[in-house]
Amino acid sequence: MGTRSGYEYDAIIIGTGIGGLVAGAYLAKAGARVMLYEHHSQPGGYFTSFTRQGFTFDGGIQACEDCGMLFSVLRQIGVLDRVELKKTRFGLATPDHFAVLDSLESVQAFYRELIKVYPDQAAGINRIVEDVGNFCRVMEAYCQLPNPMFGPLRQAMATYPGWRKKYKGDLKHSKEFVEYMKIPLDVYLQKRLTNPDLILFIKQMMYAGAPASFTLSFYYFVMDYYHPRGGFQSISNALADFITEKGGKIQYKTLVEEIVLENGRAAGVRLKTGEIIRAPYIISNSDARRTFLKMLPPEATPETYRWRLAETPVSDSVITVFLGVDIPAEEIKTRDCKHIYYLPDYKGVDVLKSLDDEDAYTRAPVEICIPSLEDPSMAPPGKTAIVLQSLAYMNYANNWRTENGKRTEKYKALKEKVSNQLIANAEKLIPGLSGKILFKTVGTPYTNERYTLNSEGATAGWTYNPTKAMNTGWEGMKGFKTPVKNLYLVGHWTMSPGGAPAGFMSGRIVSSLVKWRLRMRI
Ligand SMILES: Cc1cc2nc3c(=O)[nH]c(=O)nc-3n(C[C@H](O)[C@H](O)[C@H](O)COP(=O)(O)OP(=O)(O)OC[C@H]3O[C@@H](n4cnc5c(N)ncnc54)[C@H](O)[C@@H]3O)c2cc1C
User: Fold this and answer.
1) Is the CB of 16 under 6 A from ligand 1?
2) Residue pair 10/497 in contact by the 8 Å Cβ criterion
3) Which CATH number fits domain 11-53+232-312+460-520: 3.40.1130.10, 3.30.70.270, 3.30.1640.10, 3.50.50.60?
4) Which pTM value belongs to this model?
5) What is the mean pLDDT of each run of 10 residues along the chain (522 residues)?
6) Ligand 1: which of 14, 21, 38, 46 to mutate, judged by most atoms within 8 Å of the beta carbon?
7) CA angle 15, 20, 26 (to 5 degrees)
């Protein structure tokens, strides 16, 4: 491709989250000279794993939906054969019911079970069951759409009529799906139900304010969930190795502090060491607020844009409890489910509205992730690695009892207390759990922020609430564009709702744009 004179690289990528790695891999494959800077000691951002005392844990994402992207992107780059992706079963459990979500009917049956607890809400529940069916089928149709981004246009066009025929009936609900993407779930639920406890019970299964049709169709994702053998680090390592094999460079433990502008265009980066490195295109996989409010001077972006960046809420964070336990896999009876969302009571809790309640997690749902049940490489023989997660916010319990961001003894005590509350709930599915712990460590929203630099430990970019979000609708699909010339964004800050697909999609699109501009020399 030929590096332009005066520049060390064709493109610099700030961060090696999934968005940065995907963009870097496509560019390196095309022969561009790419340089990636990562502040952590390994690639991946939330696509990460770590090993302690022989137990391997996924530090961020625990399972990833294909969504028509995961396999396509890895295959197109050429690394699919370097990872082993296994479909994982997801379960929903309450103290008296366990549902394996392996078909649309099983999801609908879980909702119908709620009629036993809330008989006077039967009419509303039946409407929700109908919507779950319609929206999941629309989501499936969208995910299966022949996508010219991941193969020859001719092939996409040839398979399109078959796709249209297969999903014709389901696509009738597209209009409704799009309409309900603009409405938060709780607003939708208030139209269908009158019991506030039931509304809260359903609402707590998703990120705060998430769009109604997205939430009800998310069950399609969990039926299409995959886990990579050895943990999510294996995907990140495969992409990072590919980049370096193709001549790209990755420098770890390196913080980019500033995006350097020349004549109003992004033209390089300044590292924490003070060193300046130049390239005609800069791709930021960093937190959006950090990119525009910390790494660029105020005059680089319009005031209204900066105001929106500062004021738009971010997506929910999580508290995570990593446990190495002395329980053999065969003794854990979760009906072959490696991921179980356990809801301790039918009343539900809104942690976001219970920020001063130190006992909120005795009632909050807990996601129990046990990939080592199927993948023995993740735990020593006869033992099991378990990850417990629950939604959490940085301002919980007076900022987790930190003092000016410092992790005090009170912070540690609170972490201990909340983690024990989550363990107590998980113990209802895994009897004897608390007495079998060999290793334990706990992460809070502060931990997420420290490792990934995502504001407030946000797990998926901006808020999922469509009435408050930064990038929504079709306009939101262009979130990779920025007001600064030659600067692009990749990762979960480019779309709402964000998540791994936003990383795959933006990485693919931005790499194509930069490749094209490099070839055209514009
Ligand atoms: C618990 C949990 C569960 C999840 N579950 C799902 C799920 O089921 N489905 C789904 O689709 N998504 C899920 N997600 C979200 C998904 O994992 C993320 O949205 C996605 O991985 C984010 O990718 P990204 O490209 O935006 O980069 P990030 O993962 O945010 O990584 C950014 C990287 O850039 C680096 N960086 C930032 N700034 C700088 C700088 N200035 N200099 C150098 N390096 C820098 C950081 O260190 C980091 O490595 C989950 C996330 C979590 C935490």
Assistant:
1) yes
2) no
3) 3.50.50.60
4) 0.97
5) 77 98 98 97 98 98 97 98 97 96 96 97 98 98 94 92 96 96 96 97 94 97 97 98 98 98 97 97 98 98 95 97 97 95 94 92 96 94 98 96 93 97 97 98 98 98 93 76 97 95 97 93 66
6) 46
7) 145
